[in-house]
Amino acid sequence: MDELLLAALERGGDTSQTGRYLITFKEGGLETGVKNLQARHSFQMADARDFAEQAVNMQDAAAVDVLSFPEIGVAVMSGEAAATRNLMTAAAADDETVESIDPEYFVFSSHVNPRDYLRGAMRALQFVYDDLLEEAEESEPDAIRSPDAPVSEPLVAGVTWGLSATRAPASRFDGRGIKVAILDTGFDLGHPDFAGRPIVSATFVGQPVMDLHGHGTHTAGTACGPLAPAGPTPRYGIAPRSLLHVGKVLNNSGGGTQAQSLAGINWAIANRCAVISMSLGAAGSPVQPSYTNAGTAAMANGCLIIAAAGNSSYRPSVINAAGSPANSPTVVSVGSVTSAMQVSVFSDGQKVDLAGPGSGVLSSYKRPVTHSTLSGTSMATPHVAGCAALWAQSSPALRGAALRARLLASVRALPFPASDVGAGLVQAP
Amino acid sequence: MPDQFIQSLVITTTGTRPIEHVAQDLRAAGFDVQQVLEFVGSITGSGPASKADEFRGIAGVADVSVDQPVDIGPPGTAIS
Hints:
Chain A is of the alpha/beta class. Chain A folds into two domains: 2-105, no CATH class; 133-421, CATH 3.40.50.200.
């Protein structure tokens, strides 16, 4: 499917289409229809019944023009076959057995896996919970609010809640001249919100940088997205003038290895990226000496590694410790808060240096979706990375350990233990 | 047969010796060096699990750990 997606993105236009066509036959018409197609248009044909258990591998089937699925009365026609025979509509097929011919669309589904379904439901509940809390807070007169009750930052029109909460929109800094490395699943290099932006990239996983997962495009968007995206999309990026460095250390399934992450950090330091954002980790992992060393090396070279604490908790009953690389003392560990200034239910604890907005975060996403709302310490991390870029721009002295110190000293205090939110909520200069 | 068991390993160096020298000694000891990451002071690659202690004993090696998988949070979920 990756090949089809890449081809679709290269074609441009409606990238939600695969380029193939589906021929739907009238009831009982498939056998005759397929024979007619073969006879009239000299197609290379294959039948799903030719494959063991009818488990068709579409890559194996790529060599044929038309692949028929007798069980469902449908055949898939390659885009090339459709174009060369001009067969994009049922009328063009001129065959009484053909009901319709339609473009095939990509299906991005997480419904197949019941565990994913349950997690989706959990996330929905989290949103409802957050919303209710926010409403309750809004309707509560200030007089009966306890003195240290958290207060949501007033929403700024035209920006995401996360940006409001960090006060980035009011900052006079925009990240200009600051290199920000996002080590993730790559980036959608053709994303319309980044048109004309210089992007430096490298891959460490043997796949092109092009993000076919979406996660990397999302995290990069939060840290480095544009000042004013086109259309109704609110501003979601903290450092719009920063120089985005995309290091693909996770494959298109969202997985990678510690060695690949280290290779990405090495590259980011070699490129003198003042900020290195890592929305990834190994849950439950003890402190890894290699990451601790990498964090020290980063600071010695004027860089700072910022990493997600992790999402393995289910608060309030289960609070797990942050995994690696966030648990290294030389790496800044980021926890997540909601728009109601509560600790996100999934946010890991123990070694947390500060918190960022991480629940219900809108940012860029791989095409054809272009924008998406996600939750996780993965989303909180680039908020901190973006603010770090603004701080770095504010003074050339704020690099490495000094940048870390300023980030932690400039937070907005939150009424929660340091093991949950560290020093508090990240703030822009 | 532990000798046959090859593991992906991440080797952290002390920074007290040139990293290429450490890599050479590791190769000589049977470690298949994949990458020498000079800035972060790590050497990645693979070697027999049974030789981990031998690798640890090489001058300039601070730590030998098994390369672990990393991901974006619980894999394949909406929370990442």
